[in-house]
Amino acid sequence: MPAPVLLYACIGIEPKRWIDAFRLHMPELEVRQWPDMGDPADIEYVLAWKLPPSLLQTLPNLKVIFSLGAGVEQVLSDHTLPTGVPLVRMVDPGLTTGMIEFVLLSVLRYHRRLPEYEANQKVHRWQELVPKLPQEQRVGLMGMGELGAACAQSLVALGFDVAGWSRSPKTVAGVTSFHGPEGLIPFLNRTDMVVCLLPLTAETDSILNAQTLAALPRGAFVINVARGRHVVEEDLLAALDSGQIAGATLDVFRREPLPSDHPFWSHPRVTVMPHSAALTQPKTAARTIADNIRRHQSGQPLRHVVDRRRGY
Ligand code: NDP
Ligand code: OXD
What we know:
Blueprint (H helix, E strand, L loop, with lengths): L4 E6 L5 H10 L4 E4 L11 E5 L14 E4 L5 H4 L10 E2 L4 H19 L2 H9 L15 E5 L3 H12 L3 E6 L8 E5 H10 L3 E4 L13 H6 L4 E5 L8 H10 L2 E6 L12 H4 L3 E3 L9 H16 L15
Parallel strand pairs: 1-2, 1-3, 3-4, 4-5, 6-7, 6-9, 7-8, 9-10, 10-11, 11-12
Helix pairs in contact: 1-10, 3-5
The structure holds NADPH dihydro-nicotinamide-adenine-dinucleotide phosphate and oxalic acid.
The site of NADPH dihydro-nicotinamide-adenine-dinucleotide phosphate has 29 residues, from helix 5 and strand 7.
């Protein structure tokens, strides 16, 4: 049997760590790098992130598209995406750990009132600030999938009062489940810190807007680690300025990189991160992809295939 061939087509992402990791986890896999792909008919697998335009159309024997990211809205918006070829999203232990770390860091930062201490330090003010007990801090995860559920469990372990909102009801120990459009406002009403970990779809686009931000208790915090389009930026700025929202940690934006004149950069209650809350880690992710290629080659069902109708 000829060696399987994977085309690395991830514009802007350094290939070396991926190539080393594939060599370790699947030495028999031949990895080619776009645009040096040789005969397009050899390519059975593509690893994609910011795909070169129309590339997929030129691959007659493509069997599976692997997304380098957990979010697949970019790949799905490619009008040349072949209909019969499964698209697999990224589920990577390294990515999940990174997201848990970042969400805990952000929640704890607000919970322990660090932004206030930082402001006090600037004016040399020595002042003790009493934190709430964790069980008095109501954290809400929008999205209870691979990442949302993992973050929820870690927050429960620290004693926070955790709820999740998803499309379907969930049973996660210690987490109150809300679901569906009718569950959204009750979920927001009880949430002091909302963490967005939804996929970007037609239903979730602009979901954090004037109306939903107003449904949070006054003085709530927003942590968006999903996609910039989940947030209506002007509505969030207005809610910050009115005091409805006390602070926001934003890792993702409608335009990335965030333009240098964007008001978020200098807003005193906004923390800007350059879309790096969690990064796919080649060392762990290449192994997951290799396992899936082996499953595919032995006729077993692929894991983590995107449901194109749902959009995630
Ligand atoms: P999953 O597909 O595993 O989970 C998605 C969750 O969102 C599910 O619980 C799903 O509900 C819920 N959901 C989807 N649509 C709706 C809706 N209309 N109403 C209510 N709930 C909905 O995704 P992941 O957890 O792996 O990733 C989530 C997102 O995080 C990615 O799509 C990506 O955009 C972002 N991300 C950002 C990173 C960063 O560094 N900033 C890194 C990695 C990911 P149900 O379970 O019922 O289907
Ligand atoms: C992802 C991301 O979707 O990095 O994985 O944003």
